[in-house]
Recover the amino acids of this structure.
């Protein structure tokens, strides 16, 4: 688990670190000393809990919503009693929970672009299969988009049927004014007076 997870990114440690080598793609995964790699959850973009541009100071998007997305991800995965020190997770009641990653590529930062599931994997590690809608609906990606906490954001390699399902769920969340859509002004516009706006 990442020490600074947010609503669309978390560290995953496989049972066998060699499993990272089974994933095709131009970019290689960046792995830490424990064999963990950062996942970038496909199809969603949550507000950042922490972001520091080069040469700049840490900036925050609406931090309450960013923390809600991160908390929802951890809760859905089964982590309990999460203790934070600022943006860092210092303790959880449960760790090393079973889960699985469905991925075909890494991004330019070496993060696996993935669908993330909990529990036992649907296939043995490294076996290739297409993800159908039923499997998509069992992922953290799908769960989070139904909450309205992340925006839908699609990489070009996400299959059209999966993209359409996530977009449909995002529209439902927007209509219900959930999460980021509760105060969303992108359809009506707003006056921007300064960076704080």
């Amino acid at each position: 688990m990442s020490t600074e997870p947010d609503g669309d990114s978390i560290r995953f440690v496989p049972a066998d670190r060699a499993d990272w080598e089974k994933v095709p793609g131009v970019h290689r995964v960046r792995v830490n000393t424990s064999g963990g790699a950062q996942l970038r959850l496909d199809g969603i973009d949550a507000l950042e809990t922490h972001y520091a541009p080069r040469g700049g100071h840490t900036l925050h998007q609406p931090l309450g919503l960013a923390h809600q997305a991160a908390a929802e991800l951890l809760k859905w995965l089964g982590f309990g009693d999460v203790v934070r020190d600022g943006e860092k997770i210092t303790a959880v009641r449960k760790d090393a929970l079973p889960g699985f990653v469905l991925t075909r590529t890494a991004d330019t930062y070496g993060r696996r672009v993935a669908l993330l599931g909990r529990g036992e994997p649907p296939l043995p590690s490294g076996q290739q299969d297409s993800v159908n809608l039923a499997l998509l609906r069992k992922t953290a990606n799908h769960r989070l988009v139904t909450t309205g906490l992340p925006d839908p954001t699609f990489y070009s390699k996400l299959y059209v049927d999966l993209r359409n399902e996530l977009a449909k769920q995002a529209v439902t969340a927007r209509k219900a004014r959930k999460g980021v859509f509760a105060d969303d002004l992108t359809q009506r516009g707003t006056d921007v007076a300064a960076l704080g706006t």
